[in-house]
Design goal:
It is globular, with a radius of gyration of 20 Å. With 381 residues, the protein is an alpha/beta fold. It has twelve helices and twelve strands. The C terminus is likely disordered. The strands form three sheets. It has an eight-stranded parallel barrel, surrounded by five helices. The chain has a two-stranded antiparallel sheet with strand order 5-6. It has one domain: Luciferase-like domain (TIM Barrel), CATH 3.20.20.30. Helix 1 crosses helix 2, helix 5 packs parallel to helix 6 and helix 6 crosses helix 7. 42% of the residues lie in helices and 14% in strands. Helix 2 links the parallel strand 2 and strand 3. The site of flavin mononucleotide has 25 residues, from strand 4 and helix 9. Pfam families: Bac_luciferase. InterPro entries: DMSO2_SphG (IPR024014), Luciferase-like_dom (IPR011251), Luciferase-like_sf (IPR036661), SsuD_RutA_monooxygenase (IPR050172).
Length: 381
């Protein structure tokens, strides 16, 4: 039975993980992030996810570029896997594949990508790239992932796609093929119907925005059904976002949440809310991320409060393991005061999670369903 994995959001964008004027003892710069990455791997974290954003927006004035920042964190650590977020549309998949192969060699097999289809139209406009309609963005992302996998695993890759063309392209060296995975893992961010279907067909990991138990259950069901329909049952793992506030008492933790929301930067939260709802609107069934997010939800821009990881270490550990029973394989966590809270999580929450996991009856846990991919040839191209 696999144990739960933990990732954290790299704070490589200024302003922290909540759009609030509450004090946030965190920093988007490299020195802070290097110290954080080392602390995180020593505190039980398996992955770090760097964000991609190219220009100022909604309370996030400064940003470090995702792939280069990820590489710097990989070189500063020994075990942490670092996931670089990338936008199809701003990268050619062959060029990213080349970067990924080098990053994977430099880090001995710890590079991964998060393919995000995008929400920030102004960023594409500013860079002179067309902003595709919602489901077209997913068609392009799927083609991007197929191209990436093909170039990472095959010689003489060929693709005559609607968005990318590759002719007789052989990458040397290929990324590492480790016992854990045949090429860098491919995560995806996006929760709409198109996103769920794409995950089933091509992704290794599906990342959900913050959700309660019902929201997770619905998505796990849909993603599994999509994977099964694509002949990939058991091959897509599920990651859930959550903003974690662990304090010695529940009252203290709840007070922190209250203060975050009370001190929200209202203008930035409302601006972000209208941009993302607009971005998802062309998903006709209204099932995209953020479509039913309230003002309070949007103060953490990935709906992280909804997961409810707010309380004492015991309460949070129980909730985390309850999510595991619903099919969550990985938690993607954000914090207010990163260094202090990552350490507290490693010391106070994670040991309780491991104790509770050990008590779960084998048949109660669906995790065993994950089948490591040996032969990827059917997925490429
Ligand atoms: C875990 C996660 C991480 C994301 N990271 C980024 C990012 O770094 N940059 C970005 O522009 N969008 C990011 N997104 C947002 C996606 O680009 C996309 O706009 C969003 O998932 C909405 O897609 P949907 O309409 O399919 O639900 C992320 C989404 C998730 C779930």
């Amino acid at each position: 039975m696999s144990s739960l994995r933990f990732a954290y959001w790299v704070p490589n964008v200024s302003g922290g993980l909540v759009t609030s004027r509450i004090e946030q003892r965190t920093d988007w710069g490299y020195d802070y992030n290097r110290e954080l990455a080392v602390l995180a791997e020593n505190s039980g974290f398996d992955y770090a996810l760097s964000q991609v954003r190219y220009m100022a927006s909604y309370g996030a004035e400064y940003q470090h570029e995702s792939t280069s920042f990820s590489l710097a964190l990989l070189l500063a650590t020994e075990r942490l896997k670092v996931i670089a977020a990338v936008h199809p549309g701003l990268w050619h998949p062959g060029v990213l594949a080349k970067l990924g192969a080098t990053a994977d060699h430099l880090s001995k097999g710890r590079f991964a990508v998060n393919v995000v289809s995008g929400w920030f139209k102004d960023e594409f406009t500013a860079l002179g790239e067309p902003w595709l309609e919602h489901d077209e963005r997913y068609r392009r992302s799927e083609e991007f992932i197929r191209a990436l996998r093909s170039v990472w695993t095959e010689d003489h890759a060929e693709l005559a796609g609607d968005f990318y063309r590759i002719r007789d392209f052989t990458l040397k060296p290929k990324p590492l093929n480790t016992p854990e995975r045949p090429h860098p893992e491919i995560f995806q961010g996006g929760n709409s119907t198109a996103a769920r279907a794409m995950a089933g067909r091509v992704s290794d990991w599906y990342f959900s925005n913050g959700k309660d138990f019902d929201g997770v259950t619905e998505q796990v069901r849909d993603v599994r059904a999509a994977a099964e329909a694509a002949g990939r049952a058991g091959r897509v793992r599920f990651g859930l976002n959550g903003f974690l506030i662990a304090r010695d008492t529940e009252a203290e933790a709840r007070e922190v949440l209250r203060e975050i929301v009370a001190k929200a930067d209202t203008e930035a939260v409302e601006g972000f809310g209208s941009a993302v709802k607009q971005a998802g609107r062309s998903a006709a069934d209204g099932k995209g991320m953020w479509q039913d997010s309230s003002f309070e939800d949007l103060v953490q821009y990935n709906d992280g409060f909804r997961t409810g990881l707010i309380g004492t270490p015991e309460q949070i550990a129980e909730r985390i393991v309850a999510y595991k029973r619903l099919g969550v394989d990985l938690f993607l966590l954000g914090f207010l005061h990163y260094l202090e809270e990552v350490e507290y999580f490693g010391k106070r929450v994670l040991p309780l999670v491991r104790e509770l996991e050990a008590q779960l009856p084998e048949e109660d846990v669906e995790l065993g369903r994950y089948v490591p991919v040996g032969d990827v040839s059917s997925l490429a191209g």
